Structures are given as C-alpha cells and as structure tokens.
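W.,

You were right to be curious about this one. When I first looked at the sequence I had no strong expectations either way, so I just let the prediction run and decided to look at it fresh. Below is the sequence, 355 residues in total, followed by the output.
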Amino acid sequence: MRARDADQTTLFDEATPPRAPLPVVGEQKDIRYFAATARSVLNTPAATGMEFWSINPYVGCAFGCQYCYARYAHRYVAERLNSESHDAKADVLPTDELPPWLAFERRILVKREAPQILERALLRPAVYDALHRETVVIGTATDPYQPAERHFRVTRGVLEVLAEHRDLSITIITKSPLVTRDIDVLSRIRDRSRLSVHVSLITVDRELARRIEPRAPTPDARLRAIARLRANDIHVGVNCMPVLPGITDSPEQIEELVMRIAETKATHIGACALRLQSTARDKYLPFIADEFPELSEKYRRAYARSHQVGQRYRDGLRARFVALCGKYGLSFGWRNTGEPEDAEAVRAEDQFSLL
C-alpha cells in the first residue's frame, strides 16, 4: 500500500471546517479519541495514486507498530484541521505537543458517521458505478479493527452498508482477531460480492512481535482468527509484510511463519521487505539503535539511498517465500491465480543474504 493514501483527505473525503476543538469521545490509558466530521469516507484511485478505492474509518492507529509507514498522516491532518479553525487560540486536534509519530497512535480520530456518509455516497450514480467496477479496500492507512472499533463499531457499520449491495469487490486489511466478530456481516458480503480479508502477520514469535508491534494482537490470536475465517469459507490472505531485515528474515523464521500460516488453511500469502519512508525512518531507526544496536549501521547503509533495501535482497526474499509456499501448499501473490512463479525469481534464491 502506498503512503499517499494515509492523508485520507481527497475529493471525496474533505473534513468540514470546524469552529471548535474536536470533541473527545473516549479515553483508554494514554490514548484519546476525537470525533471527526467528514463529507465523505471514500478515497478515489485518482487521489491516492492506487488502483482501488479506499475507506479508513479511523485516522491514527493505536497498535503502535514500529515500522508503520502512515505515521506522517497525523501531522498533516492536525495542521489542516487547526489551520481551518475559526478559533485561532484553540487547536481543533490537540496533540499535547506530542511528536507526529507518537500523536498518530495516541490521538485517534473516529469517523462515527462513516456508515451514513457511505450510504449517501452510494446513492450517487457515479460513485455507485465506480464501486461496481473497481475494488474498495478498507484499512489502507489505519487498522479498521484497532481497539476503538470494539466501542465505536464504525467498521462494522461500513460493512453493513456494503452488505446491502451486490457485485462489489471488497478487501479488508487488519492485524486484529476482532474481525471475526463480524463473520455474520462478512458472510453476507461473501454471498453477494467478492470479499477478501488480508491479515497482517510478520512473525510467530510472541516476544519478538511484542517488541516490534507493542500494542497489536499476538501472533497466535491472529492465526486463530485466520483459521476461524477460513472455517466460515471466507477468503483470507496473509500479509507477511514488512519483512524486517536482520530481525524477521532468517530462513528458520520464514519457514516457521509459512508453516504456521499453512496450518490455518489461509488462501494465499504476500510478502515484501521493509520500505522505510522518511517519517517512518524517524521512528524506526532510533528503535533499531535501542533494541537491535548491532543492526543500526547496517540499516543506515542499506536504506541510505532509497526507501527500499537492495534488489538482490528483495529478489532472494521473494524466491524464498515462493519456494516455501510451494512446499506447504500455499499460493504466493495477490492475484492467487495458481500459476507458477517465474524461474528467474526462483533462481534468485541463491542470492538471498542479510542486507
């Protein structure tokens, strides 16, 4: 997913200029939730540069993944909302002077009216026709099943609206087993449209996961959720991304990950190496220096000229996943066509090496 989507403010998603600070609608330890008003919740492909429409019921994400690419969104949203305020003395979105990367996971915007806004949008012939031709992805910039969803149920409301329509193509991206709460709605969508749930999982090591994704659900909880979705005949892909060089990429780690995913009867796997955009770098590289100091200089060299690690590493990583998916009977890649991967990528297995 491209980070341009993280802003969530497009032709079809423009926040109504506020006149007062956003109301606080909930608190959870050190996290504060604010009500956000939007004219629409749909992001167009033209606005995001992606090949699909997208919906993000929340702005910000409480899971706090160290590598998150969308953290920069909060600064732009806060600056825009505050600049549009009619009260020059009050911040519409208070961040308590938190750095943008931290405000992203501690000051969450909740689009409580998203279901009603989406329902109205689908009455417009142009939007209705577009969504019946192209895929809509829920959760491209923030997790739609983060802790706020237990209380606010915005994602469920969006799904209930989509379940009333036929012949759509819908994808959900999440790290949370909370998605299984909505199996009833997902089943209705599955029966009327094309549905795919993508569960993100980069390691099955619980302690390692806690260091990298401190507030996200455990790997075992996600694996159980995948199995439960599949038991209800829901198409489930697993995002083994990002693979973190030197941390989650050893042959043993990758094989255990693929093997455990295969046990859930997941439909397919997708994988790619860490992409380190500038704002994510501000959070991730200090984390590496503190938690994995032996890798700090390697990371700085590997990502010195690009947001991506070198092509040789990427080719080898892909080839390793291709080989292991073949071994454990899983499809690799998002098209899920069942076609074999090209021989050139498989030969790249011999080039696989750490950074």
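Here's what jumped out at me. The chain has 15 helices and twelve strands. And, maybe more interesting for your project: The radius of gyration is 20 Å.

Coffee later to discuss?

I.
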